[in-house]
From TrEMBL:
Protein name as it appears in the record: Outer membrane beta-barrel protein
Residue ranges annotated for the DUF6089 domain, each copy included: 13-209
Source species of the chain: Chitinophaga agri
InterPro entries documented for this protein: DUF6089, OMP/PagP_B-barrel
Length: 297
């Protein structure tokens, strides 16, 4: 008798959960908006983890789908620029290397946001986000006359040269892992403003075209020409900083470090307009009364 009663109670609990879930859930709605902020880079041309002197702008757009109060799906496109240069470092060896780069970064990403508070109830919530990204980059530099020079075709570290078969040309379109944190503020029932910081873990050490060692000067000259030699090593262009110009290093001399891959990051403000929903006053995320749920006891 007791077991039958227990089974009957559990059946009613399951029925309540299945039937009442739509009543106690929140109306899903969409968000569409934009991002305006800055881009930074961390790699072989920054003596610090991040050199804020090479901060560049970033702009983007996004769409979001709120599944419930605490879970949001997101997708977005972001464009930014990254840069770095040895000339602003303090280490003598880096000053003598005298390399520099700049690159556009265009990223598409999808992911999730986990909100810690009910935004409609508290009007503000911190959140964390993560997902997967697909981005493109293309490192360039400037010559002494200010002309833009594309670095990848020069094979500055022997990429794609038969003399260095293990050094393959790096892909300029790759996957990344975006993750970070932010805070949202509900301005009105429809408008949400936020501040977000997002790191991008990459799987390349060539955002800046620097990773391994110098290759033989004559081999590079024969394979890629004088311009490749000029931009593989620029220590002979050094002026000031109490550093004397150098000569092209011997084959195998350290040029960069492949111990860690390069990173990039976006930081800035978001503004979103939300629409959809439908339950309750204002049409957004208003829980229906418990009396709307059928009674079984």
């Amino acid at each position: 008798m007791k077991n039958r009663l227990s089974r009957a109670v559990w059946k009613r609990v399951v029925v309540i959960l299945l039937v009442c879930a739509p009543f106690s859930a929140f109306s899903q709605y969409w968000q569409a908006g934009g991002f305006l902020g800055i881009t930074n880079y961390s790699g072989d041309l920054t003596q610090k983890r991040v050199d804020m002197r090479y901060t560049r702008y970033a702009i983007g757009a996004h769409v979001k789908r709120d599944i419930n109060r605490y879970l949001t799906l997101r997708a977005g496109l972001t464009y930014g620029r990254i840069a770095g240069a040895d000339s602003t470092n303090t280490d003598t060896m880096l000053l003598k290397r005298n390399l520099s780069f700049r690159s556009p970064v265009f990223e598409a990403q999808v992911g999730v946001e986990i909100n810690f508070l009910d935004l409609d109830e508290k009007k503000i919530t911190p959140y964390i986000h993560g997902g997967i990204g697909y981005y493109s980059f293309y490192p360039t530099t400037k010559d002494a006359n200010g002309n833009t020079v594309k670095l990848r075709p020069l094979s500055t570290e022997g990429q794609g040269m038969s003399q260095y078969p293990t050094r393959k040309p790096y892909n300029i379109r790759q996957f990344s892992i975006p993750f970070g944190a932010g805070v949202k503020l509900l301005l009105t029932d429809n408008w949400i403003v936020g501040f977000e910081f997002g790191l991008r873990k990459t799987f390349t050490d060539y955002l800046d075209d620097v990773s391994l060692t110098y290759i033989d000067r004559n081999s590079l000259l024969r394979s890629r020409g004088q311009q490749a030699v000029n931009f593989a090593y620029r220590g002979d262009e050094v002026t000031g900083n109490h550093v004397t110009p150098g000569t092209y290093p011997t084959d195998g001399t350290t040029r960069g470090s492949d111990k860690y891959n390069d990173w990039y990051m976006f930081t800035g403000l978001t503004l979103s307009y939300r629409f959809g929903g439908g339950n309750g006053y204002g049409g957004h995320w208003k829980k229906q009364k418990a009396s709307d749920c059928p009674r079984f006891f």
